[in-house]
Design brief:
- This protein is of the alpha/beta class.
- The chain folds into 2 domains: 138 residues, 2-Layer Sandwich (Nucleotidyltransferase, domain 5); 158 residues, Nucleotidyltransferase, domain 5 (2-Layer Sandwich), CATH 3.30.420.40.
- Helices cover 39% and strands 20% of the residues.
- Strand 11, helix 9 and strand 12 form a beta-alpha-beta unit.
C-alpha cells in the first residue's frame, strides 16, 4: 500500500505516523527523545526512528514509504544553510537534516519544516483555519511564534522569516527578550514571562506557572488579575497590529497559555474588539488540533511531494 512518513520531533518526544495518499492513518508511534552530549545523538535518534518507520511500512504494507515530511524545532533558511538544503540548528551546529534523512530512507523526497509551520499548515487545511482563506496562528508557549495562513498554504516571506510575531515590540522599554530587544511580545506574554511575573508577586514557594496565575485571577486574586490582564492586553496589541497589516479572518491561538480556555479567550476577545477602529472584527478562536498538529502537517508536506501539488509553503527556499 502506498504511504508516506510523517515525523514530528518535539522537545519532549517524537511522534510519527504512516499516512496513505488520501490522508488515512495507517500507523502511529511515539518515542522518547534521545539524550546525550552533542547534537549527533539527537540527529541519530531521528534518523533511526525514520528508518524503523520505513522498515515497518515495508513489512506491514509490502512497500516502502514514497516520501517523508519532518517537523523540527528549529530550521535555518536555505540562504543560511547553503545548497545542501534545509539545515536544522541544534545548539550551535547546522545539520543538513533533509539530505541525511533522504540518504537513510533510500533517496526518497523529504520535506523538512519547523514545528510551528507544520502546525499552521495542519490548522489551515484541517483545523481552525480551514476554509477561511487567511488566518494567523499564534502559539503561546515558552516562546511565542506565529504562522500566516493564505488559502491552503503558509506564507514564509521573502527570507523564510514571516510570522515572527513574538518579536513584535508591544511594550517599548519592557522586559528584555532573548532576541536582544526589550518589550517583545515573547518577553511579556510567554508562559515563562507570565509565570515569572506571578511568582515574583505571589511569593509562592516552589514552582508556579502561567496556569497558576490564570487560576488565581479566576478566583479573584487582585494581583493575579493585574498580571493576567496585562498579558492579555499585550497579546491583544500584537494581534491588532498583525490584523491591521494582514486583514485576517480568524486569529487562532494555541500553545500552553491557551490551555486555560475561556479564562484567556473571553477577556482576549473583549480586548481585541476594544482596540478595533476601521478594521473588520476578526474571530478569536483556539487552535483545534492540539499536540498532533505538527505531525499532521508533516504528513501534508509529504503527501504534497507525492502528488506534485502546489507547494504548501511560499516560498519553498526558506523556513524556520
Amino acid at each position: 500500500m502506498s504511504h508516506v512518513i510523517a515525523l514530528d520531533v518535539g522537545d519532549s518526544g517524537m511522534t510519527a505516523a504512516l499516512v496513505a495518499p488520501d490522508g488515512a492513518l495507517l500507523h502511529e508511534e511515539r518515542r522518547s527523545p534521545a539524550r546525550g552530549p552533542g547534537p549527533e545523538v539527537v540527529v541519530e535518534s531521528v534518523l533511526r526512528f525514520a528508518e524503523d518507520l520505513r522498515a515497518h511500512g515495508l513489512e506491514r504494507f509490502g512497500a516502502a514509504a514514497k516520501a517523508a515530511g519532518v517537523a523540527v524545532p528549529g530550521l535555518m533558511s536555505a540562504e543560511q544553510s547553503g545548497p545542501a538544503g534545509h539545515s536544522v540548528l541544534l545548539g550551535r551546529s547546522a545539520v543538513p537534516m533533509r539530505r541525511r534523512l533522504s540518504d537513510r530512507l533510500g533517496g526518497i523526497p523529504v520535506a523538512v519544516e519547523s514545528r510551528v509551520r507544520t502546525a499552521g499548515l495542519a490548522e489551515g487545511r484541517l483545523g481552525a483555519g480551514r476554509g477561511t482563506g487567511r488566518f494567523l496562528l499564534v502559539t503561546l508557549g515558552t516562546v511565542v511564534d506565529g504562522v500566516i495562513g493564505v488559502d491552503d498554504g503558509i506564507e514564509a516571506g521573502a527570507h523564510g522569516l514571516a510570522g515572527r510575531i513574538g518579536h513584535v515590540v508591544v511594550r517599548p522599554g519592557g522586559p528584555p527578550c532573548g532576541c536582544g530587544r526589550r518589550g517583545c511580545m515573547e518577553a511579556v506574554v510567554s508562559t515563562d514571562a507570565v509565570g515569572r511575573a506571578w511568582s515574583e508577586v505571589s511569593g509562592a514557594v516552589g514552582a508556579v506557572d502561567s496556569a497558576d496565575c490564570a487560576r488565581a485571577a479566576a478566583a479573584g486574586d487582585e494581583a493575579a488579575t493585574r498580571i493576567w490582564q496585562a498579558a492579555i492586553d499585550a497579546l491583544a496589541d500584537g494581534l491588532i497590529a498583525a490584523h491591521t497589516v494582514l486583514d485576517l479572518r480568524p486569529l487562532i491561538v494555541g500553545g500552553g497559555l491557551s490551555e486555560v480556555g475561556e479564562a484567556l479567550f473571553t477577556p482576549l476577545r473583549a480586548a481585541v474588539e476594544a482596540r478595533l477602529t476601521f478594521q473588520r472584527t476578526p474571530t478569536v478562536v483556539p487552535a483545534a488540533l492540539g499536540d498532533g498538529a505538527s505531525c499532521l502537517g508533516a504528513g501534508l508536506l509529504a503527501r504534497a511531494l507525492l502528488t506534485r501539488t502546489a507547494a504548501p509553503l511560499r516560498p519553498t527556499s526558506g523556513g524556520r
